[in-house]
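Key result, reporting period 2: structure in, sequence out.
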């Protein structure tokens, strides 16, 4: 058990009364002494964000904080199905059994590499390019995390783009009570999986540090799905004065992942472990760094400046034809056909300044939090390169010129502010506003012909967002919350680039815009109930599509979708209802549910306006299940804990037209719902050591969560079948 030391000061004032005198005796100070308090199991692993943290206001917003050190889950493979089990409504793509790329979303949005979230690590950007290419190829190892913070759509006022809100990975920090501490965890599992995590950290006077080295490799559950990943991280902070702290971080990651490709539905039904691509590979070297200055100007005013930068790549080589076309030896050359090489290079940097001020207003303490942001992103994209005929991860070209070469530059300036107005003792009202200036520049060519060269183009947009939140304290530990916030999703690079020389991009193309609204009731009851029950409404306007205009393809804003529904999380400790002192341990059950109605309400495609059979109005949004239910039970007894959970997810359509019958290549068609059961346990002994084990997909469910039109398919992408893991660790 971890121990905390609480220093208690007793001030004992005695008075001595004498006859015929009223004189107060001198004050007596009793010396300090230590009281040792042992921390007990806390119900659930879900916390909520405080009203303000790091000069960001969270009051009135729907938030969840996952405490990684309190969950039973397969952290060795970043199993997001288990890690996010108690966050209602999290839709997860599970085709990547390696855990290298987390694909999560909420409220009917696409989980594609979490691109509908503003994804950060310790508060700074880690996506490829937050505006033009918000896909996240880097996910930190879950063993390195202290917490994962999830803030729904209202996060747009503080963090800017994406309708899904904020997803922030919080890495552990050095032990504040030791100059040096060491942590190690080693895991083996099915299909040759080996995972090792080793960390060191501590605090020496004013200096604190933490670093880790991580490696994971496996042959993979499917054929042709070998992977190997290395991650390193180091952070250091120094308390320069009582008021000033400076800190720096650096993360590096590199991996090589074999891509087994997709399957047709017939192939999936025959054997969902088979693969027809053995020469396809993917890799993404990532380097991310940050520098932070914290300055307590006074007890009421705090300043934080965070600068960050990313230098990264996205590299793939493979045979990318339809999965129905065999990757076989060409009889004319007696060799395999040349593979396609695609490479991206990202260089991004930015700075955010955040200021908070606490002040009195009509006798109540109020809080102002605001800031400014400057950001520059540069992406160089080379595609359709003619690669080798070999089998290995080889990015060399047989022809030095790529079939497509583009460069994108994004410049962003933003200013934002929110304020907590405390009205009486129970009510908080939180208005907010944000202004974004976005500039995009595009140069290069989309093919090697003269007509394929693009004119250098610059697009400028100015966006104003606003919103308001409320929070009403019902009891000391429960509150009602609600908010309404405008949101936007920037036009991506692919949407700014014509796919062919005949396609025209609307010069007035707008960023997708809309709003999020939440209303809920949350809190805890004594120490046996933890809950958050609410409803949501997400309006997603200016969706981008292609219509025919003057006989040519014309890409413009033509669609609107609406997602609405219910999200609920309830966890109850059956033993603590009756007693806090139990010799038989503690049993808690949880249910995390989301019911989602996500549909297109407008699609202004003039080519199909008069043909109701082709219109997608009132069709379900693709990749949006109508329900996501997760149920579980956990048992705790001293240092032993075990969890069993069921994930039940509804069916999804994989295209906006809601095509039921799969096509011959497996790229479109309805995907059936599924039910997956997981179990894991952990045991800590001798204060320093732990043993963990688990079984993923106990029922060996045969399922798929996505289809791919290109990489990493094309075709249907199976989820992993039954796997097991065993882990041993120690901390000194």
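The corresponding designed sequence is given below.
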């Amino acid at each position: 058990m971890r121990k905390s030391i609480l220093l208690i000061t007793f001030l004992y004032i005695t008075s001595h009364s004498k006859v015929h005198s009223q004189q107060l005796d001198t004050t007596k100070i009793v010396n300090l002494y230590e009281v040792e308090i042992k921390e007990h199991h806390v119900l659930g692993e879900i916390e909520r964000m405080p009203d303000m943290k790091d000069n960001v206001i969270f009051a009135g917003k729907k938030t969840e904080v996952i405490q990684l050190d309190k969950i039973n889950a397969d952290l060795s493979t970043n199993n997001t199905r288990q890690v996010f089990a108690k966050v209602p409504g999290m839709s997860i793509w599970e085709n990547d059994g390696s855990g290298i790329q987390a694909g999560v979303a909420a409220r009917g949005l696409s989980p594609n590499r979490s691109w509908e979230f503003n994804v950060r690590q310790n508060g700074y950007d880690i996506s490829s390019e937050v505006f033009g290419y918000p896909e996240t190829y880097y996910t930190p190892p879950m063993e390195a995390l202290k917490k994962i913070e999830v803030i729904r759509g209202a996060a747009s006022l503080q963090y800017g783009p994406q309708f899904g809100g904020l997803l922030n990975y919080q890495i552990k920090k050095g032990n504040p009570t030791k100059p040096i501490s060491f942590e190690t965890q080693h895991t083996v599992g099915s299909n040759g999986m080996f995972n090792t995590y080793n960390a060191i950290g501590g605090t020496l006077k004013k200096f604190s540090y933490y670093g880790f080295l991580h490696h994971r490799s496996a042959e993979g559950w499917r054929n042709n799905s070998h992977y190997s990943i290395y991650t390193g991280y180091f952070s250091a902070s120094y308390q320069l004065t009582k008021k000033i702290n400076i800190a720096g971080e650096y993360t590096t990651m590199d991996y090589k992942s074999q891509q087994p490709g997709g399957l047709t539905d017939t192939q999936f039904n025959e054997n969902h472990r088979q693969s027809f691509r053995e020469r396809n590979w993917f890799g993404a070297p990532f380097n991310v760094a940050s520098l932070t200055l914290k300055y307590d100007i006074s007890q009421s005013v705090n300043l934080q400046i965070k600068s960050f930068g990313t230098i990264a790549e996205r590299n793939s080589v493979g045979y990318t034809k339809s999965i129905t076309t065999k990757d076989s030896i060409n009889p004319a050359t007696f060799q395999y056909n040349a593979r396609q090489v695609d490479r991206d290079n990202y260089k991004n940097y930015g700075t955010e300044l955040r200021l908070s001020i606490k002040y009195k207003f009509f006798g109540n303490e109020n809080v102002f939090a605001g800031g400014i942001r400057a950001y520059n992103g540069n992406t160089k994209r080379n595609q359709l390169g003619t690669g080798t005929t070999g089998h290995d991860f080889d990015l060399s070209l047989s022809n030095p010129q790529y079939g497509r070469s583009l460069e994108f530059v994004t410049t962003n300036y933003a200013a934002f502010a929110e304020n907590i107005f405390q009205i009486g003792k129970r009510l908080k009202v939180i208005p907010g506003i944000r202004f974004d200036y976005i500039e995009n520049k595009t140069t290069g060519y989309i093919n090697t012909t003269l007509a394929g060269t693009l004119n250098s183009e610059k697009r400028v947009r100015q966006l104003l967002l606003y919103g308001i939140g409320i929070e009403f304290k019902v009891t000391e530990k429960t509150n009602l919350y609600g908010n309404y916030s405008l949101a936007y999703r920037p036009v991506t690079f692919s949407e700014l680039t014509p796919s062919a020389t005949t396609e025209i991009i609307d010069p007035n193309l707008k960023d997708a815009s809309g709003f999020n609204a939440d209303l809920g009731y949350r809190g805890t009851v004594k120490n046996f109930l933890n809950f958050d029950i609410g409803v949501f409404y997400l309006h997603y306007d200016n969706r981008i599509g292609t219509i025919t205009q003057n006989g040519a393809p014309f890409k413009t804003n033509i669609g609107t979708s609406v997602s609405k529904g219910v999200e609920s999380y309830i966890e109850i400790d059956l033993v603590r209802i009756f007693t806090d002192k139990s010799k038989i341990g503690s049993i808690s059950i949880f249910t995390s549910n989301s019911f989602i109605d996500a549909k297109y309400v407008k699609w202004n495609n003039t080519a199909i306006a008069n043909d109701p059979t082709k219109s997608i109005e009132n069709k379900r949004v693709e990749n949006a299940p109508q329900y996501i239910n997760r149920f579980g039970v956990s048992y705790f007894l001293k240092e032993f804990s075990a969890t069993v959970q069921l994930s039940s997810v509804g069916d999804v359509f994989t295209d906006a037209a809601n095509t039921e019958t799969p096509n011959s290549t497996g790229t479109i068609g309805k995907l059936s719902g599924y039910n997956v059961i997981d179990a894991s346990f952990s045991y800590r002994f001798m204060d320093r050591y732990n043993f963990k084990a688990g079984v993923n997909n106990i029922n060996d469910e045969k399922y798929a969560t996505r289809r791919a039109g290109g990489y990493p398919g094309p075709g249907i992408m199976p989820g992993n079948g039954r796997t097991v893991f065993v882990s041993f660790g120690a901390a000194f």
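Residues 1-42 have pLDDT under 50 and may be disordered. The helical segments are 80-83, 156-159, 265-270, 493-496. This case is discussed further under Risks and Mitigation.
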